[in-house]
């Protein structure tokens, strides 16, 4: 796994050994960033279920201004720290070790231009996380949510008056949805 584009292009990123995290493949990451490229410059990002931090790091490499990484695993948090240092982007990142489903409300009062979500597959965390993001206005008007999910996960069928579907794609068993906040 590597940074695909921008100032940290080509830097190999570390990942967590084992099956506790599921890194976004370079193919899917490249597709995601081509879908959202017009939203990246100077964007403030929130990387939920961050794992190795690859999505937030890619945003920073491509001109994002800052990213808050949320991850519950101590090993993954250390991996994000190491990857941020390796890419020389640590000054633009904030790494918070906490659970998304319980602690996301601690960010109340802050808002972001882009939210990356790559929750564990089939755990029922998608809808509740999006509801929390919208309830606490963590996503700015016209901000986008990028959701990576298993294609068979019924929890990924997002219906909200506050979100507009920009695109939905499939890459093998991985689905990617991009949603824009309209109200």
UniProtKB/TrEMBL annotation:
<dbReference type="InterPro" id="IPR002052">
    <property type="entry name" value="DNA_methylase_N6_adenine_CS"/>
</dbReference>
<dbReference type="Pfam" id="PF03602">
    <property type="entry name" value="Cons_hypoth95"/>
</dbReference>
<protein>
    <submittedName>
        <fullName>16S rRNA (Guanine(966)-N(2))-methyltransferase RsmD</fullName>
        <ecNumber>2.1.1.171</ecNumber>
    </submittedName>
</protein>
<keyword id="KW-0489">Methyltransferase</keyword>
<dbReference type="InterPro" id="IPR004398">
    <property type="entry name" value="RNA_MeTrfase_RsmD"/>
</dbReference>
<keyword id="KW-0808">Transferase</keyword>
<dbReference type="GO" id="GO:0052913">
    <property type="term" value="F:16S rRNA (guanine(966)-N(2))-methyltransferase activity"/>
</dbReference>
<dbReference type="InterPro" id="IPR029063">
    <property type="entry name" value="SAM-dependent_MTases_sf"/>
</dbReference>
């Amino acid at each position: 796994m590597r940074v695909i584009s921008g100032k940290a292009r080509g830097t190999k990123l570390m990942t967590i050994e084992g099956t506790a995290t599921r890194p976004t493949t370079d193919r899917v990451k490249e597709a995601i960033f081509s879908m959202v490229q017009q939203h990246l410059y100077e964007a403030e990002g929130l990387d939920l279920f961050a794992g190795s931090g690859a999505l937030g790091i890619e945003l920073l490499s491509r001109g994002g201004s800052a990213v808050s990484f949320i991850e519950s695993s101590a090993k993954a948090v250390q991996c994000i720290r190491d990857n941020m240092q390796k890419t020389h982007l640590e000054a633009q990142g904030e790494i918070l070790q906490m659970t998304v489903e319980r602690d996301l409300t601690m960010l109340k009062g802050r808002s972001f231009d882009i939210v990356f979500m790559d929750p564990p597959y089939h755990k029922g965390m998608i809808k509740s996380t999006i509801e929390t993001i919208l309830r606490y206005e963590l996503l700015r008007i016209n901000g986008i949510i990028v959701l990576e999910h298993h294609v068979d996960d019924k929890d990924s069928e997002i219906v909200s008056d506050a979100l507009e579907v920009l695109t939905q794609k499939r890459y093998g068993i991985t689905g990617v949805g991009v949603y824009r906040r309209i109200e």
